[in-house]
């Protein structure tokens, strides 16, 4: 699990790297848990970075056509 050093909510380089690695094929809640952040914060950062879930992941949870 990545550890947060900042109290301001700023994202460390390691956190961003892990977010980019996990987000596309892992539930947002699970990524948030691993990063010790709220799911809304993870979703917001992923959106800001242009990250999206893969079609394969969305299909696996019944959200892709």
Give a count of the beta strands, DSSP E runs of length 2 or more: 0
The helix-and-strand class reads mainly alpha
**Biggest β-sheet: count, sense, barrel?**
none
**Order of SSEs, N→C?**
HHHH
Taking pLDDT < 50 over at least 5 consecutive residues as the criterion, the unreliable ranges are none
Rg over CA atoms = 12 Å
Number of H/I helices: 4
Report the principal-axis shape.
elongated
Fraction of residues in β-strands: under 5%
Mean pLDDT: 91
What number of domains? Answer: 1
Helix content: 40-55%
- From the N-terminal CA to the C-terminal CA, the straight-line distance is 33 Å
Sum this structure up briefly.
The chain is mostly helical. It is 54% helix and 0% strand.
What does this protein look like?
The protein has 65 residues and is an all-alpha fold. It has one domain. 54% of the residues lie in helices and 0% in strands. It has helices at residues 13-22, 28-35, 39-49, 55-60. α2 crosses α3. It is elongated and about 40 Å long.
Question: Which features does this protein show?
Answer:
65 residues, elongated, mainly alpha, 54% helix
List the helices and strands and how they pair.
Blueprint: H1 13-22, H2 28-35, H3 39-49, H4 55-60
